[in-house]
Amino acid sequence: MENLRNLEDFKLDVLKEVGNIGSGNAATALSRLLNKPIDMGVPKVQMLPFEEIADKVGGDEQLVVAVFFRVEGEAPGNLFFILQPQAAKSLLSRLANIPSDDEDSFNEMEHSALSEIGNILAGSYLSSLADFTRLSMYPTVPALALDMAGAILSYGLLQFGQMGDAALLIDTSFLEGQNQIEGQFFLIPDPESFGKIFRSLGVPMNDD
Amino acid sequence: MIEEKSIIKVGMADLNVTSNPNSIRTTGLGSCVGLTLYDPHLKLAGMAHVMLPSSDIAREGQLNIAKYADTALPELFERMLKLGAERRRLIAKMAGGAQMFAFAGSGDTMRIGPRNVESCKEMLVDLGIPLIAEDTGGNYGRTIELDCETGVLNIRSVQKGVKEL
């Protein structure tokens, strides 16, 4: 944990660039799917206290749609694609032609379509990271949940829980048109993955 | 003088105690367990938001005792006693310990919710405090609030609505 807290700005910049490349690819995939331009926010890389992570999507109790992937391979971690329910409904109607006005529930068809959309985006996110770092990274099958953000995101923090009360988060939002937040990618690399990512990019590590 | 009722918040990997007329609350429990102790005589309540079952796996420099079931429960118990609670009067209720994602990868992490629940139960047995009600498991998140006046534990979830224990 100590060396995570002391991550120099340079290393944070490297992680930001890693996030940038991954989400750039995912944004391209999304705009192809929707056939319209999707803007991407500059990724934020932060060491955040657990308490503040859910605030990034509106607070502990904010209802969100989350597609979760465990990232396996040489640099494991947790990846979430998070949407506000109305954004998920709008994605569904435009992408899969599934119109619906009930924002609080998603049927089996909608679940499956959202998982598939998440899968495409996560796949393009991770494959560009894998190319860039030359580390193997691949997602497990997607798991979808519609629930409180706190309950969902805490699951991604368990590996960090053994070491401290903060986690490193690479957070990118997508924008379509007028600042409407379409979705967010959260990559929470396992604590052990940082060294591997940095080494693969030629960043000198203290413990080498 | 009318006493103001306030809600004491307990964060993730955190614990606290309070007394009447307040209530105590924690939000967004997923695989974490919200455990409460209550002394009905003094209308005293304590709550811990437990994240992991055992501090054996801790690799952190300075241990956050509120995070692990095996360290949080004894601490909460001690803090209740300091405020005058008596062991024979204390009762426990708990909620949470869900499996948020049905498949979600490998082994231990996946079962963390049920393991948190088991570990809390073992600690309660060790402390000699009866668990009188629980709402645990499932695959959904919960927000809980214990009212010091009544000792009622209110549980809210997106999927299952409101429940009182």
Structure description:
With 208 residues, chain A is α+β, with helices and mostly antiparallel strands. Chain A has one domain: CheC-like (Chemotaxis protein chec, 3-Layer(aba) Sandwich), CATH 3.40.1550. Chain A is 42% helix and 27% strand. Chain A is built from eight helices and eight strands, in the order ααββαββααββααββα. Chain A is globular, with a radius of gyration of 17 Å. The relative contact order of chain A is 0.25. With 165 residues, chain B is of the alpha+beta class. Chain B has one domain: 60s Ribosomal Protein L30, Chain: A (2-Layer Sandwich). Helices cover 21% and strands 34% of the residues of chain B. Chain B contains three helices and ten strands. Chain B has a five-stranded mixed beta sheet with strand order 1-3-8-9-10, with no helix packed on it. A five-stranded mixed beta sheet of chain B has the order 2-5-4-6-7, with helices on one face. In chain B, a hairpin with a 4-residue loop joins strand 4 and strand 5. Chain B starts with 6 loop residues before the first strand and ends with a strand. The relative contact order of chain B is 0.20. At the A-B interface, strand 3, strand 6, helix 6 and helix 7 of A face strand 3 of B.
